[in-house]
Design goal:
By secondary structure, the protein is mainly alpha-helical. It is 16% helix and 5% strand. The protein is built from three helices and two strands, in the order αββαα. It has helices at residues 12-17, 59-66, 87-91; strands at residues 43-45, 55-57. It has a two-stranded antiparallel ribbon. The radius of gyration is 15 Å and the shape is globular. The protein starts with 11 loop residues before the first helix and ends in a 28-residue tail after the last helix. The relative contact order is 0.16.
């Protein structure tokens, strides 16, 4: 498996894009198939903290793993700008924290999401 320095050491995005793994949307007998939603464009989520850059959220990367309907509308409302959240909430397992730190890479490496942070 491709390696990375954070999380469990596996670069899951690289593993998916190279075809080493093939994510599925539903586990028969465990989860239910929801109607598919239309994929949206990537967008930036601004930061209110000085020196911390915006997060560029990639629908494409997330939908390959989950499909839009895993997060919408239960975790994130569909209406743009309707969800206002903080890192504190994410750290407590809300919003992005529903997956990150659990089944997706940990949020400890700020640059994975805040791509413009200067060091």
């Amino acid at each position: 498996m491709p390696r990375i320095s954070s999380g469990n050491g596996i670069d899951w995005e690289a593993a998916e894009s190279s075809g080493r793994i093939k994510p599925i949307d539903v586990l028969e007998g465990v989860s239910i198939q929801k109607p598919r939603l239309k994929a949206q464009k990537d967008f930036a989520i601004g930061s209110k903290s000085p020196g911390i850059s915006a997060v560029v959220f990639s629908h494409k990367k997330h939908a390959v793993w989950n499909g839009c309907e895993v997060c919408h509308p239960e975790i994130f409302p569909i209406k743009k700008g309707a969800a206002k959240y903080t890192m504190r909430e994410i750290e407590k397992g809300e919003y992005c924290g529903v997956c990150h730190n659990k089944v997706a890479f940990p949020i400890l490496d700020c640059k994975r999401c805040h791509t413009g942070i200067k060091t």
